[in-house]
Write a structure and sequence with these properties.
Mean pLDDT: 92
CATH topology of the domain at 4-79 and 154-234: Rossmann fold
Strand order of the largest sheet: 6-7-8-3-9-10
Number of helices: 9
Structural class: alpha/beta
CATH class of the domain at 4-79 and 154-234: Alpha Beta
CATH architecture of the domain at 4-79 and 154-234: 3-Layer(aba) Sandwich
Largest sheet: 6 strands, mixed
Order of helices and strands: EEEHEEHEHHHEHEHEEHH
Distance between the termini: 35 Å
Length: about 240
Amino acid sequence: MSELSVAGLTVRYGGVTALDDVSLVAPTASITAVLGANGAGKTTLLRTISGLVHPVAGTINFGGRDITRLAPEVIAGLGVAQVPEGGGVIRELTVEENLRLGALCAGARNGDKDATWIYQLFPALGPRRRRPAFTLSGGERQMLAIGRALMARPRVLLLDEPSLGLAPLIVGEIMALLRRLRDESELAVVLVEQNARSALSVADRAVVLHLGRVVKADDAATVGSDEGLRHAYLGF
């Protein structure tokens, strides 16, 4: 099992509390949506899970191991991959070089085989494999960023606003891909999104944050059907 669990997580930046006693569980072969407005603490949560930020309280457990204060590279090596907001691909490198970098950073083997799998997941990237990333559309760059993370063969995938700035059609394709990855690869996906409607359409569970605190944690259908919650925190 590669279940990820967060318990009582508290993070402060100076005198500002960014996360306040946050808990969640992201089981294997599931999508957990983390929802809320700007400033709710969503990105801080992902950065803390991946080791880029250290909490002042709480624990993070992955696959039965406490990873709370491990270095980011150690956490990545254990199988936790993060796609930051905006994707973070290296624009000057080709599509293929970006993918190889994803495997290299995690010490993964079989890079050629895995790259073939990525091109199957994202057919638009195959014909562009020799092109620099800056020549891709916004949607293609997001696909490349996700593909680069998958090259490490992670067990947990952390996604920060993958739909940001993308056309609805592309957003739909990315959400469908996440559903496929959950079902076929048994990934535990933690999906941070402001597009709550799209996230809830594919998520199994949802956690709603407001000013660093959890205001609701339940199955996605229950969260999506709560009209008061939607109007107060989710914007639809």
